[in-house]
Structure prediction request, 573 residues.
Amino acid sequence: MLTAQWLYGLTGCLIVALGLRAALLHTSLLQRVVAVNVMGAGVFLMLIAVAYRGPEALPDPVPHALVLTGIVVAVSATALALALARRLTAEQNDG
Amino acid sequence: MADALIWSVVTPLAGALLTLLLPRPATAVVMATGLATTVAAGSLLYGVGTQGAMLYEIGGWTAGLGIALRADALSALLLTMTALVVLAASVYSSVYLSKTSERTRFWPLWLLLWTALNALLLSADLFNLYVTLELMGLSAVALAALAGKPAAVQAALRYLLVGLLGSMLFLAGVTLIYAGYGTLDMASLARTVEAGPVAWTALALMTAGLLLKTALFPLHFWLPPAHASAPAPVSAVLSALVVKAAFYLVLRLWLDVFAELVTTTAADLLGVLGAGAVLWGSWCALRAERLKLLAAYSTVAQLGYLFLFLPVLQALPPGPARDLAMGGLVILALTHGFAKAGLFLAIGVVQQRAGHDTIRELDGTAQRLPATTFAIALAGVALIGLPPSGAFLGKWQLLAGSVATGQWLWLVVTAIGSLLAAAYIFRVLGHAFGHRAYPNRPVTIAREEWPALLLTATAAVVLGLAGAPVWKLLEGGA
Prediction:
């Protein structure tokens, strides 16, 4: 029985798997940062699918709050990674 | 008394904000914050000792909707160790960071890392654990990159990516748990969780994420460069506390929340990885050319010992024998925390005075820096596991448990690991004493040498001779 909830949930799992594969296999720094972000998007999609409680009922607010927090964390982590990467390239170009 | 829970988190956070706003009196603010947080941690430990586990619901919101903090004997002990180690490392850092420009960037991150560590140890629900893991990871990476050399930035970047990958795996596990059980509170989860594909997959995902963060062999590849290229006080905290916080979560999940799911095969698997960590980490420490790299590889090995306890605990039935082994695990973790922090601080002193930390060129260090060399030797006593260190008690319980459950392999691994540890410590001391004669000079102890000396003495003497309360606390307060 493939409902909309399962469709979204399983797609989320697939995206996590793809992101994990890319994060492990790629060596380029930028690709790995993007891969971890893709993985995060998959986890968030899973969380949103978990919140679904049927066409009539309101969705569960807790996973939504978790997704919001997760996005904030992912954005700040990505910012730190990019800042470090910039510093590294700048210093490699200098020296 | 339950207020101590919230103060342990709020005080360092307030200190972090204050040092950011007022960079000039930062050192005074840090010392005041450090003392206040240590008092909070101490009163928490006292409270857990007298009245058992404590719960604090932030804002009065009950579990399910609100955020709860919980402290039991295990978290209170680790919290107290964290406070003492960070306090000592703060005193050291106030001398180590001579330039004001370094301090303004260092102190806020330093206190933020402390906040994250305390919040992680006290969190009562899985999602907060994810948030605190990320907070800890981000502030640790920023601190590790502070040295500014390309090698440090590169190592920090790798550390960040590994950490992110680990927390994403953890979050995926948390999602599955919420989908399956509709709760994130660890206490209610422990009551409702049952063996099945959902719980299995969730535990596997969360454990994989945490093993990456705690650098269990063969996932340790990122640790030596990151810990060896960070500034000395940062290395001390990373090696002594940050990896141990992730290990604490593994313990929490395997022994508390998912205790009924854990099978002998799974525990044995972690034991085998731990054995690999002990042997490979000790071997690499023996071959290391720089002191800091030696200390970092020794962290990989020492974390391995902690994982050896898991199959032993799994095989022991609940009762006095299991309590003894559990106490051994905790005291080994505490001893390593104090000893490794002290070792890194001592290496920092050597590195600043001599301008390098190459082991071959340490000749005469014992004469020039007698107190620091003594601190390195004391740390060595604790890392090898000689009496009267706390590690001796811990390893003794590990051996007793392995014999009692017939798991002889762990006994052999522990013996080889301890011999290798003795070899790498004596190699350092051998070079430090050297062959040339130096004129006798009176022993002086500089201000930055005290923290290392006190930390390593705690590990090598105090915890071993006065370690009995740890067992008592774990039995009563768990």
